[in-house]
Design a protein that fits this description.
The protein has helices spanning 13-30, 63-104, 117-124, 182-187, 241-253, and strands at 53-54, 59-60, 142-150, 156-163, 169-176, 197-201, 204-210, 222-228, 231-238. It is an alpha+beta fold.
Length: 260
């Protein structure tokens, strides 16, 4: 502010003060700021986003079409998830089944080694009042079991299971001190009284029980039954007639009491 002694004539101090206050504003109006030497490049400014053109339509899709598209995509996604879930559930089920098979189901047991039935018969002979039949069979035959067991009361049964060269099976049962209904018990109530034929093999007469045409006859598809000197003999199994005849012939040679 100017001291009062230096105020020009004809002007009051107050008018001078008003001029000083107005001076910055007057300068701003009469001397504007110079423009920046590097104006902004408006070509780099982001352009407004244009609607996406759908190839199938050749134009931007409407809001209704966009909503429908999103709904269809959602439906497809859920359908895919359902299929994936089903596949995973099926895989899990198969895994459980495989585990059960591995844990519960056992592989087929290997065939039992052949049994030396002649040795077994020799060892068991002391327990039988009559000679135990141990036929010497041709090459190719084998036994998978041989045993002497109590058969009720004072009865005994000597049994050998034979495997034939043609992969058949014939069981030899020798009933010792057996009751009169022994064949009935072995063959079944409806079989013992219904012999289908009779045959003579090396001097021994056998009753024939041919049940090969029956439903599931098991190891009684064909049977031969005879009794010599109070001892009963029963051959039964699944083999052809020739193999039964071979075994019956060898048995006959081991029966010294038979007059041939």
């Amino acid at each position: 502010m100017l001291p009062q002694s230096r105020v020009p004539k004809g002007q009051s101090l107050k008018s001078i003060q008003l001029l000083e206050l107005a001076h910055p504003l007057t300068r701003l109006l009469t001397h504007p700021r110079p423009e920046s030497p590097n104006p902004p490049d408006r070509s780099r400014l982001p352009m407004p986003k244009q609607p996406r053109i759908v190839a199938e339509l050749g134009r931007p899709e409407t809001p209704e079409e966009a909503a429908a598209r999103r709904a269809e995509n959602t439906r497809k996604h859920r359908a895919n998830q359902t299929v994936i879930n089903l596949v995973l559930a099926l895989a899990a089920s198969l895994g459980v089944v495989a585990l059960i098979v591995l844990v519960v189901v056992r592989p087929d047991q290997p065939p039992r080694p052949p049994v030396d039935y002649i040795v077994v018969a020799s060892e068991a002979q002391s327990g039988s009042p009559v000679p135990l039949i141990a036929p010497a069979l041709p090459e190719g035959w084998s036994a998978n079991s041989a045993s002497l067991r109590a058969d009720g009361g004072d009865s005994l049964v000597w049994r050998i299971g034979f495997l034939t060269p043609q992969f058949g099976f014939i069981a030899l049962n020798q009933g010792i001190d057996s009751p009169s209904d022994w064949f009935t018990e072995r063959l079944g109530d409806s079989r013992a009284d219904e012999a289908t034929d009779e045959t003579v093999i090396d001097g021994i007469t056998w009753d024939v029980y041919d049940r090969r045409d029956s439903t599931d006859p098991g190891n009684y598809a064909y049977s031969l039954a005879t009794e010599v000197d109070g001892v009963k003999y029963l051959l039964h199994g699944a083999a052809d007639d020739q193999q039964f005849e071979t075994l019956a012939t060898v048995i006959a040679t081991d029966l010294p009491t038979v007059d041939r």
